[in-house]
Amino acid sequence: MNVMIRRLKAGDELRACQVAAAFKSAQLSAERVAQFLANPTNYLIVAESAENLAGFVLAYRLERLDRTAAQLFVYEVGVAPQYQRRRVGSRLMEHVRHLVSEESLMEAFVITDHSNDAAVRLYRSTGGQVEEAAGVLFVYPGHAA
User: Which fold has domain 4-125?
Assistant: First the structure.
């Protein structure tokens, strides 16, 4: 299976809208997507097979006060059901690792639940290392949608 991995950028608004619709059931305006893609700290990386969306990574570059190198926070990884277990997720995470090197980032990191077996297998198989075995997530809800 031939899969191309690429980061979407300005001009890729239609594809980004397709990602939102296919994976998040969200209908976004072209203006909103254009703003997102124009921000260099936002990463929307897609896996495409022919014209089909096979998967995506949504990540954010985080600048650090205490370091000169930034981090990449991998917020979400998704693979279309028909492409699961076909190395699409692995290829996406390999691309993330390449970006860490290419952009001289300190690291990329991702958070998942211990019970998410598929995610744990993916991150371990692509070289991810568990930094802390347990954590607590605190959320401060806002009023915006």
Answer: Aminopeptidase (3.40.630)
